[in-house]
Write a structure and sequence with these properties.
single chain, 19 helices, 9% strand
Length: 412
């Protein structure tokens, strides 16, 4: 059997092929373009690569055009963690020497000796991979938006506390279009104090507000005209210009987040697993899309529910040595899926009486809030694995059956 290792870089890649005995059969240095990809495929075909029996490939990334070319057909592509590859390198040399062709050889030997210990890239559908791209991009845009909003809030605290007090009643605060429009209209507290009711109403209407405009304009006018401390005029104007520059970035981040959210809402319902995911309490379109993005739609990716729970970081781990033994939470996990799971468990407390009862029971047994949420997520993601494998929707009575005490109480 032949094994291929590729040390990838931005412009060029090094390729190495070895056989079962570890003998180096061929090595190439290819460019990152169509010509280089053609040379790679021809090299693989020269050493017996066929559509029915493709040569497995090890590479240190799971993304990019090179990986997309390699994943065509039934070929197994193994994304090896760079830290793991560095440990394998130490097995072949104690001098700690390193080279790109040598790294390609190490990757090929990883498959030769330990292919069973590494997981190939999942065989997700094109629609599933597209949802992964959109869901992750939307999540990144929300994080970026919140980071910019925090920067803007810190800046306003330095010279414009009236704006923070005026927007404190609004959900999402500075991210709301009304807040951004008012800050554009009056970038300094001195200009805000001179705004008339008509000007404030016009700004609210430009931002899309339709109800309660007059009452809201009156409240904002009073907040802007209240007594606040001020920076010197020149400093205040300079800070206002800085705020407008930051506001442009926040506007772009809000627009990107909204557009990506719409793209997710269009793509996710088309997936065959959407109905099952949305049947779970606490999962809406955006959050369900994030869960699907991380677990994929390849049903053979995880051998059992325990594997999925470990991947999500919801199941605990045991560290035992000698007489010492400790059960702790996982640190190595899929952070995106773990984050989505925390939101899922939190939202399910109101959407499911069984989930709420399970969480309360864990708290009564001594769990802190985060531990109770993690335990609830661990249970529900196991149920999700079962439902996806058997193509069934969530059933509250089966997921959280009533305890015998509750059944007896209801009968009495």
């Amino acid at each position: 059997m032949i094994y291929c290792g590729i040390d990838w870089a931005e412009r060029t890649h090094d390729v190495a092929l070895v056989d079962d005995t570890g003998q180096l059969l061929a090595k190439r240095h290819i460019t990152d373009d169509a010509t280089g990809y053609k040379i790679l495929l021809e090299l693989l075909a020269e050493y017996g690569d066929t559509e029915e029996d493709p040569i497995p490939v090890a590479i240190e990334t799971s993304r990019g055009l090179l990986v997309a070319v390699l994943r065509t057909g039934t070929r197994k592509v193994f994304a090896i963690n760079p830290m793991a590859a560095a440990r394998y390198r130490d097995r072949h040399s104690v001098s700690r020497k390193k080279s790109d062709p040598g790294d390609a050889l190490v990757l090929a030997n990883i498959l030769r000796t330990d292919m069973h210990a590494h997981r190939p890239l999942p065989d997700d559908s094109d629609l599933g991979r597209a949802i992964t791209v959109l869901a992750r991009a939307q999540q990144d845009s929300l994080w970026n938006r919140q980071q910019l909003a925090n920067q803007l809030r810190s800046l306003l605290r330095e010279y414009y506390p009236a704006a923070l007090a005026a927007f404190t009643n609004w959900t999402n605060g500075l991210c709301r279009p009304e807040a951004r429009e008012l800050l554009k209209t009056a970038p300094t507290p001195a200009r805000a104090a001179r705004l008339t009711r008509t000007q404030i109403q016009a700004a609210l209407k430009r931002a899309g507000r339709q109800r309660g405009v007059e009452a809201e304009a009156e409240r904002l006018r009073e907040a802007f005209r209240a007594d606040w401390a001020h920076q010197p005029p020149l400093v205040e104007d300079a800070l206002g210009k800085q705020m407008l520059a930051l506001l442009i970035q926040l506007d772009a981040a809000c627009t990107a987040a909204d557009q990506l959210a719409e793209a997710v809402e269009d793509a996710f319902p088309q997936h065959p697993d959407a109905e099952i995911l949305l049947s779970f309490p606490g999962l809406g379109i955006q959050l369900a899309a994030r869960v699907l993005a991380e677990i994929g739609d390849d049903r053979t990716r995880f051998a059992d529910a325990r594997g999925l729970k470990a991947y999500a970081g919801s199941s605990p781990i045991t560290r035992a040595s000698g007489k010492k033994s400790a059960i702790t939470r996982r640190w190595v996990k899929n952070d995106r899926l773990n984050h989505a799971g925390y939101l899922w468990a939190f939202a399910s407390l109101r959407a499911s009486t069984g989930a709420n009862a399970h969480y309360r029971r864990r708290r009564e047994q001594g769990d802190w809030h985060a531990a109770g949420q993690r335990n609830l997520f661990n249970r529900m993601i196991g149920q999700l694995y079962h439902c996806l494998q058997h193509r069934r929707c969530f059933d509250e009575s089966l997921a959280f059956p009533a305890s015998p005490e509750a059944t007896e109480a209801a009968a009495a």
